[in-house]
Amino acid sequence: MMILGIETSCDETAAAVVFRGKTILSNIVWSQVATHHPYGGVVPELASREHIEKIVPVVEEALAYGKVDSNSLDGVAVTCGPGLVGALLVGVSFAKAYAYAQGLPLTGVNHLYGHVAAVYLEPHPPPFPFVALLASGGHTSLYYVKGPTDFIQLGQTRDDAAGEAFDKVAKLLGLGYPGGQVIDQLSKEGNPERIRFPRALLDRTGFDFSFSGIKTAVSRYVHREPEARSTRINDIAAGFQEAVVDVLVQKAVLAVKTKGCGHLAVVGGVASNTRLRTRIKEEAAGNGITVHIPRPELCTDNAAMIAAIGYHYLSQGKKSCLDLDVYSKIRKP
Ligand code: KG4
Ligand code: ZN
Questions:
Q1: 107 in ligand 1 pocket by Cβ < 6 Å?
Q2: Which ligand is the nearest neighbour of the Cα of 12?
Q3: Do the strands 150-156 and 12-19 form a parallel or antiparallel pair, or are they unpaired?
Q4: Which of 114, 199, 244, 315 has a CA-to-CA distance to 166 between 20 and 30 Å?
């Protein structure tokens, strides 16, 4: 089964062709970072407009790169939420029209489950059941994954997402948008022990997260010591990153131990963080847990992961009608 995946939930216009939910024939991502960079965050109206301009060329490129004729497609999978409503509408409207015109089945998928499905695209995916830590710009959650489309949420952030904290801290340090990668780089030159920021909810047994306190602590620190922004920026970045990574690692390992499944997937944009990748592998190895992290280009937003989960829905006969709607907040498809 050959699936065309389409993703427009935030600031990436993406299309991909995936064979049998596993083999990536093409994975095209048009990033809007340059458009939103001057504003220090995503401007929803600009995102929608750019998706409209790019959706057709990006899909054409995905088909051409994969050497796939539209007649050889077996279905279309599209992100219908959660995300920016105006942005989602572009992908969903395109997908409906394309599926209708080509006589293909359509399935609307949850972006967060799509992130988890990125591990299905790796050569050695985790066996079911496994625990998935999703850390992205919009969400931070832990799932118990019982089957390809069977997700039980164990916990989620009560306020900011982990990636959002990276972006907000980068903004207040004057490092621009998006912040994850630049903080990751600066931290390599910093000492993570020199400035200690708080680790929220680590004393609790539950699986919820909270990251707004860390961001506030960094903000207070730079107000108290304004010169630190030029003299100790690497240490601030490393101290902040360490606090976020500590919480993510400890909660994820606790979840796997509690469920006793022995396998952990780490997905979403923040999963491309080099410190998180190293720390979680170390911690997991010490606890007999196998960690699965998709390659970095499958961690950040892409359409291959959408095609991967869409393949499983369509194989199960779960099709969407042409009245498929978009949604901004977390909801099951
Ligand atoms: O999954 P994603 O591409 O989009 C959402 O669904 O939100 O995640 C984007 C987020 C941004 O907040 C970005 O700062 C963060 O992932 N990110 C990183 C790194 N690369 C991207 N955070 C920490 N370290 C990185 N290397
Ligand atoms: Zn995402």
A1: no
A2: 1
A3: unpaired
A4: 114
